[in-house]
């Protein structure tokens, strides 16, 4: 199986030296890449993280949400499964300054605009294309949901809205944690909780489920 994985938190630049980002470490995406490699799959990792990429993958480094969207669009047709583990910024500065903003002691207003919804785009374009106009095998699209309340309900709504095949939901406490509890649901399956597990254990389970879905 050819698996495309995204990882890390994107950086949305305000000026050439300052940016808006989030606390994502990228460790979950990297654990998924390693688990996929161990399982014998070909992996492309699109990463906004500073972590050292695993040996044996095709690595694509990006910074912004726009960079990540362009990379996903470029490699999407080459994969059987997309796992969007990256924490992509929802907003980006509308007009980044071309030079460093000087400190003036006065308040400034920063106008933000929405970024593209990469996951929704992938869910819309996952339908397989076969030879001579016939329908081929659909791609598997897997997403993550970070929610501070109504975890399962909000994650399931996200899965339906974005036409996902599987979703992994967790709380903000999972960011940067060595072990965390996640809730996982495939489109036609029931919720499964994996409690206080390492990212490598969670990643191994996700890859096995993706294999099952592709079959």
Q: Quick recap of the structure?
A:
With 215 residues, the chain is α/β, with parallel strands linked by helices. The protein has 5 helices and 12 strands.
Main sheet: strand order: 5-4-1-6-9-10-11-12
Instruction: Return residue spans where pLDDT drops below 50 for at least 5 consecutive residues.
Output: none
Biggest β-sheet strands, sense, barrel: 8 strands, mixed
DSSP summary, beta strand count: 12
Portion in strands: 25-35%
Roughly what percent helix? 25-40%
Structural domains: how many: 1
Tell me the CATH topology: Rossmann fold
How confident is the prediction overall: mean pLDDT?
93
**So what's the overall shape?**
globular
Euclidean distance between termini CA atoms: 10 Å
The helix tally amounts to 5
CATH architecture: 3-Layer(aba) Sandwich
CATH class, named Alpha Beta
Query: How would you name the CATH homologous superfamily?
Result: CoaB-like
